[in-house]
Amino acid sequence: MATVILRKAQANDLEQITAIEHSVQPVPWSRNGLFSEFSTNSVIFWVLSPTSSLSKVIGYICFRMIVDEVYLSNIAIADKYQRLGYGSFLLKNALNFWKNRGIERVTLDVCKQNHQAISFYARNGFFFVCPPDKLKGKFCLMAMKLFQE
Q1: In the chain, which end has fewer C-beta atoms inside a 10 angstrom radius, N or C?
Q2: Which domain holds residue 25?
């Protein structure tokens, strides 16, 4: 894994973020949807860049506060950089950020058919709130407790 930096997303990152989103997500957000998320005050939107090229985006993550927990809106790593540890690096740094602020629970929705994402989240400590086979829609809810009892 090359040396990377996690930094706040900037407006000029949006084209690269959109390109990653459309290349890796089975149900990608539109550019307008990403921009809306990016420009919302309650959302924290970070990108992952190689230290050798800080303007290059190889991944991103965005979270929002909902009352006393955090909702993971989106995370993606460019195809070329997948399965090299960047996704876990990005997620673990974001989870530590929230844990250090006293947040106890993180939730996310994932497409039931996106087995790769479900496996990634499970490896990183997320669990199903309701088993996917019990749900009628396309998405299921997963969660993680940041402070174990």
Answers
A1: C
A2: 4-145
